[in-house]
């Protein structure tokens, strides 16, 4: 029982992903950012699209659903809390649910904040996390709809997953995230190491995705909102970590 993950670019800075269950031959697109990019990846691999797993309602993650569903007859799985915002959903899921792709099971986690109903898909056996815009390499999504408390709780759920989990996020934002992270946590050696790796990857024209969750736990300031160093930076010693998380998010918004 195993999956193959194909990574490709879509739109301007989106990542597209195909997840192929080798036992059954079923293939899921994680989100639907762009029809042409997804079809090109399918053709390159020789796979047929059977499923589409949607994380949230933003256009750059759902725009291709109607075309792909019409052409392939794919089953579309998406967040129950955003069913009124996403057309063509067949299966509605929320945190605590499980969805299968052939012989592979994905656990669903609620990660509100970027949007209120944002979910992520975690393959605990293969150790793959598809985090879309909830968690980026060295960052998190902009808090468009949610509030800091629930968003921080969602991040803590993801932080509790095994360190060797590979994270596949929605966009290539790592270089800009690294610059901000260094501005608020400059003495973090894990962050310094990751920032250097990111600079080398981008200079070579390579993506920074996927990344090991354990490395991000040590380097991503948003994952460390309960660490004293971040609280001190914002003058919030002794404050609730959600308040520190809010300060970090505001800092990034204005960076």
Describe the structure.
This protein has 255 residues and is an alpha/beta fold. It has one domain (3-253): Ribonuclease Z/Hydroxyacylglutathione hydrolase-like (Metallo-beta-lactamase, Chain A). The chain is 34% helix and 24% strand. The chain contains nine helices and 14 strands. Strands 1-2-3-4-5-6 form a six-stranded mixed beta sheet, with helices on one face. A six-stranded mixed beta sheet has the order 7-8-9-10-13-14. A hairpin with an 8-residue loop joins strand 8 and strand 9. Helix 4 (148-159) packs across helix 9 (241-253) and helix 5 runs antiparallel to helix 6 (189-203). The longest helix is centred in the last third of the chain and has 15 residues, at 189-203. The chain is globular. The termini are far apart.
Concise structural overview:
This protein is α/β, with parallel strands linked by helices and 255 residues long.
């Amino acid at each position: 029982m195993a999956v193959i993950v194909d990574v490709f670019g879509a739109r301007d800075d989106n990542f597209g992903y195909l997840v192929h269950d080798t036992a059954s031959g079923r293939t899921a697109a994680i989100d639907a950012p762009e029809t042409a990019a997804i079809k090109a990846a399918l053709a390159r691999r020789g796979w047929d699209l059977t499923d589409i797993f949607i994380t949230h309602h933003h256009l750059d993650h759902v725009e291709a659903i109607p075309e792909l569903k019409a052409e392939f007859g794919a089953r579309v799985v998406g967040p129950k809390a955003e069913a009124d915002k996403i057309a063509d959903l067949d299966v509605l899921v929320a945190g605590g649910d499980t969805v299968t792709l052939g012989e592979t099971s994905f656990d669903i986690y609620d990660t509100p904040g970027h949007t209120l109903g944002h979910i992520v898909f975690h393959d605990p056996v293969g150790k793959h996390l598809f985090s879309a815009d909830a968690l980026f390499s060295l960052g998190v999504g902009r808090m468009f709809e949610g509030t800091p408390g629930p968003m921080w709780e969602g991040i803590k759920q993801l932080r509790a997953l095994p360190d060797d989990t590979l994270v596949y996020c929605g966009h290539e934002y790592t270089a800009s995230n690294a610059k901000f992270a260094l501005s608020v946590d400059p003495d973090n050696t894990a962050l310094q190491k990751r920032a250097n790796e990111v600079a080398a990857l981008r200079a070579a024209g390579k993506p920074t995705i996927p990344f090991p969750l354990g490395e991000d736990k040590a380097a991503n300031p948003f994952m460390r909102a309960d660490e004293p160093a971040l609280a001190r930076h914002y003058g919030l010693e002794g404050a609730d970590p959600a308040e520190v998380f809010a300060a970090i998010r505001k800092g990034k918004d204005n960076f």
